[in-house]
Fold this sequence. Notes:
By secondary structure, the protein is α+β, with helices and mostly antiparallel strands.
Amino acid sequence: MIPYEQRPHRPCVGQMVLNRDGLVFIGRREGGPEHVDRDHAWQMPQGGIDEGEDPFEAALRELHEETNIRSVERLGETRDWLAYDLSPEVADEAWGGRYRGQRQKWFALRFTGHDDEIDIVSPAGGHKPEFTAWRWERLERLPALVIPFKRPVYLRVIEELGRYAAT
């Protein structure tokens, strides 16, 4: 196994999906090596980028695989890639110990469909469910709900893309 300090960040995308009322989609994660804090198990959808895949296409694919959502329009994206590190112990368990954390490009998307489109129990393509519950939440509440090591990334996402919640 590569020493922790020498591991790269896993290329990933995140999606801030906003409904017509400016509320953001969040899902509750249960399990997985990255989720070590049950009190802060909520997050926005996110996922890995396949080799050679365009980040925005990866964002749409991941969103569909996790939530069944397809009815979105692109609003914006973060200027930079945002990264977080896992603790060395958690990083050894996550993704086969190949990465120290994730480097993410975030996209703001407007959900243009109806809530009955959302299906976290039987998501698209037969993918294993990643969320056990979901809800629409006020943007300013996200940092208190997310696992602490992701908070700096969420604060940056809110700073850069939060303006879309008001439109």
